[in-house]
Write a structure and sequence with these properties.
Largest sheet: 5 strands, antiparallel
CATH architecture: Sandwich
Radius of gyration: 16 Å
Number of domains: 1
CATH topology: Jelly Rolls
Structural class: alpha+beta
Distance between the termini: 12 Å
């Protein structure tokens, strides 16, 4: 059994849903040596989140952003407003979507479905870069 952990520093992204699968895989080249395992991805922020969803049609990204913005609008009468009108809705969205993913690793690759990709869900209008802790565990290929 082998363990690897690294922190992936992502640049600042605009508000929306951004595919980051390739950045995650590139940050952990050890994945190629694992025959069976698990990758845990954790975001160290409370106003962004992670999800797995369709990786092909960019309309999905737009529709996800629109849907979550209607569920947690900036116009809601929030109490926590000291960091701007987009901050509390960002916390609500991050709580709904979640801060971590567990992805199986099979024969040196992420075992995502054909149309699946890892998304950074950026909920702030002007966010800074984001940090992801990537923890890989698994058995080496023989």
């Amino acid at each position: 059994m082998s363990w690897h952990q690294t922190t992936l520093h992502l640049p600042a992204y605009s508000r929306g849903f951004h595919l980051i699968t390739s950045q995650v895989v590139k940050a952990l080249p050890e994945i190629e040596d694992i025959s069976i395992g698990l990758l845990h991805v954790f975001i160290q922020h409370t106003s962004a989140s992670l999800t797995i969803n369709e990786n092909a049609d960019p309309d999905v990204r737009y529709d996800l952003e629109q849907s979550f913005s209607s569920i947690a609008p900036e116009s809601f009468p929030y109490e926590h407003t000291c960091e701007g009108p987009d901050d509390m809705p960002a916390h609500v969205k991050a709580s709904m979507i979640g801060n971590s993913l567990s992805i199986p690793v099979k024969k040196g690759r992420l075992a995502l479905g054909t149309w699946q990709g890892i998304y950074l869900c950026e909920h702030r209008n002007h966010a800074s870069g984001r940090n992801l802790v990537l923890t890989l565990q698994g058995s080496f290929k023989s």
